[in-house]
């Protein structure tokens, strides 16, 4: 597909005017001493008097304010450039401590001394991210549940109480309001090219952040409050994010050539791409991802607006409309209910969308863009493993949208493995994918039961009044009968007539079923409702397994040491008897979940009554597992009751199977 080659800016005309011209209209030379005290502190009153207000409702007049603050910003920029690094550190470093990332702000000072527009834009993205996080920490001095959006945070009463409303209005001129410069959003969403961000605005925000530190210090001394910094998000289970092979310099060198030729890259944004690849080579992994994510967004936005024939959405939206962001581009339908055509032009639509949903949107995924842009991640320790995946994905997109004369590069032996990994990618953080993981982890736990210590049969015989063996065997027989019913929905040759439980309810079968490729993209609401209940059931089953393992080990140790009282000994033996049927019933439930996963999309397209009936049945299974958690807990130890509960649920499972309302039957 031919992409637009004539795009010279992604800023709409009004937004381009506000950012690139408005603050330069006043040619006055502003005396820096007007806003600096003798010891270098910010004179806030002299700054706030440049904020103008509408006569109608006394809200901020952003146009007049930007025009008025323009010369002030220029003066601050020249002032900071006149300082040496040592002078700046002595004068201002302590005023950045409240942000909990002083080094980032000192780096921004270094950037201002250079002439590289890309570095200034990167510095501004990092500054706004860290500033937002720090302001959120201050908000929590007086409030709960810090607002997620920067504009709501800056407009909060809590921050106005600490810093003053006039000070917050100054900040809103620069960031957080769609009516102002809105520097954070136009950069983080990929609308601004390096040359379109005046360095003086970065300098002004650096200066204002130090001024906020001065105000906060006074406030904390007066109120005796203690500022507490929220812990950073730490990426756990990095192996789950491993989608692409490790990127070496050879791959990155080819990527640099692809960037120059790919139609996915707007020419005005080329410096960002080169800087991102350079940062990765230099082990500056947070910088690499911060630079790259907005470029992926603007490249996909170009595809989105072209394929959906809405070229006006390529530009920044006005304050009265929404940006075209990842959320909309990854949706199934447009806001006019028409089908989104973006997946059609992607060579591997499910792969690209699944990857982006996994890494950016799914709640249980890393949500890299959100967490980076909101300052939730320690930039200094950002893991290479995460950056490797984002850069690897970007390279596959560059290949997909490269000209035919780049064939030799796309077919290069070091690029082919990347493309292969891309085509094989499956979602890891969609609720269905998480359910698969839960099921297999629960099965591994239950497989530990046969290794649990037990009591020799001759010792059991010494205790009178122990009953339940016959009932346990009856339950096991019912489970076997249900398994026989399910044979038609399982792979062939996995069931032995001699031992249906141990031949079917195996980890191998569950792995085979969970490995079945299921479309997770655009899962309808009924599917997600079913999956939610199934996940709750799986969680409860795992909890039961953990309680059984812990309880069996503890009680056996006390049995051997003869520290159990008579009633406790009887209860322990009842537990051992219950394990005989609890293991197969839990494995049966996991099998049902796995079978249902394979056909979950089909059931939701069937008769709504059948779907609602089945959902009701699933909730009864959930209630059973929740009761099991209670009865098998150390506090309750109601093992006889578990037998009665299990008998009732097995009857329900058998009954609904007979009525052909089970999910996998509905799918046939």
UniProtKB/TrEMBL annotation:
Pfam families: DUF4209
InterPro entries, per the entry: DUF4209, ERMARD
Domain DUF4209: 131-211
Protein name as annotated: EMARD protein
């Amino acid at each position: 597909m031919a992409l637009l080659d004539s795009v010279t800016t992604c800023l709409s005309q009004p937004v381009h005017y506000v950012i690139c011209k408005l603050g330069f209209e006043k040619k006055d030379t502003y005396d820096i001493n007007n806003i600096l005290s003798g010891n270098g502190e910010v004179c806030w009153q002299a700054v706030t008097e440049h904020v103008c207000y509408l006569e109608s409702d006394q809200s901020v007049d952003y146009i007049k304010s930007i025009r008025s603050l323009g010369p002030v910003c220029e003066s601050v920029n020249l002032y900071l450039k006149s300082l040496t690094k040592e002078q700046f550190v002595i004068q201002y470093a302590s005023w950045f401590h409240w942000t909990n990332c002083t080094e980032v702000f000192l780096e921004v000072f270094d950037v201002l001394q250079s002439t590289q527009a890309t570095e200034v834009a990167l510095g501004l993205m990092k500054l706004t991210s860290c500033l937002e996080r720090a302001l959120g920490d201050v908000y929590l001095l007086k409030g709960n549940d810090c607002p997620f959006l920067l504009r709501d945070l800056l407009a909060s009463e809590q921050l106005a109480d600490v810093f003053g409303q006039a000070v917050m209005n100054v900040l809103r001129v620069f960031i957080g309001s769609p009516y102002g410069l809105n520097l954070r959003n136009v950069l983080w969403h990929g609308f601004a090219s390096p040359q379109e961000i005046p360095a003086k605005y970065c300098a002004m925000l650096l200066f204002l952040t130090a001024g906020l530190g001065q105000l906060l210090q006074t406030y904390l001394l007066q109120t005796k409050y203690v500022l507490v910094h929220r812990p950073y998000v730490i990426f756990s289970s990095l192996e789950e994010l491993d989608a692409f092979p490790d990127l070496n310099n050879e791959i990155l060198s080819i990527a640099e050539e692809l960037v120059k030729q790919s139609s996915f890259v707007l020419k005005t944004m080329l410096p960002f791409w080169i800087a991102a690849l350079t940062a990765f080579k230099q082990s500056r992994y947070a910088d690499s991802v911060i630079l790259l994510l907005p470029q992926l967004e603007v490249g996909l936005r170009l595809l989105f607006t072209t394929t959906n024939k809405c070229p006006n959405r390529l530009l920044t939206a006005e304050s009265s409309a929404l940006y075209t962001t990842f959320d909309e581009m990854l949706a199934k339908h447009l806001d006019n209910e028409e089908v989104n055509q973006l997946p059609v032009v992607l060579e591997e639509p499910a792969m690209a969308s699944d990857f982006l949903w996994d890494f950016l949107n799914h709640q249980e995924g890393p949500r890299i863009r959100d967490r980076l842009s909101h300052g939730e991640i320690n930039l200094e320790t950002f893991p290479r493993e995460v950056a490797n995946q984002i850069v690897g994905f970007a390279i596959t997109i560059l290949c997909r949208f490269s000209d035919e004369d780049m064939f030799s590069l796309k077919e290069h032996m070091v690029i082919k493995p990347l493309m292969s990994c891309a085509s094989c990618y499956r979602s890891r953080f969609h609720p269905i994918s998480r359910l698969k993981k839960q099921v297999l982890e629960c099965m591994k736990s239950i497989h530990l039961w046969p290794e649990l210590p037990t009591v020799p049969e001759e010792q059991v015989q010494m205790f009178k009044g122990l009953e339940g063996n016959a009932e346990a065997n009856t339950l096991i027989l019912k489970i076997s009968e249900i398994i026989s019913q399910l044979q038609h929905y399982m792979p062939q040759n996995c069931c032995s007539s001699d031992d249906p439980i141990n031949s079917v309810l195996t980890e191998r079968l569950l792995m085979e079923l969970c490995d079945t490729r299921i479309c997770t993209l655009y899962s309808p609401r009924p599917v997600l409702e079913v999956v939610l209940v199934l996940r709750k059931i799986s969680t409860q089953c795992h909890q039961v397994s953990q309680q059984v393992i812990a309880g069996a080990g503890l009680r056996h140790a006390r049995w051997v040491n003869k520290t159990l009282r008579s009633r406790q000994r009887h209860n322990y033996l009842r537990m051992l008897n219950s394990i005989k049927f609890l293991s197969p019933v839990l494995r049966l439930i996991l099998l049902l979940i796995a079978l249902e996963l394979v056909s979950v999309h089909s059931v939701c397209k069937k008769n709504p009554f059948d779907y609602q009936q089945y959902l009701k049945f699933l909730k009864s299974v959930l209630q059973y597992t929740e009761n099991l958690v209670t009865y098998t807990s150390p506090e309750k130890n109601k093992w006889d009751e578990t037998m009665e509960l299990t008998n009732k649920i097995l009857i329900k499972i058998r009954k609904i199977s007979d009525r052909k309302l089970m999910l996998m039957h509905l799918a046939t």
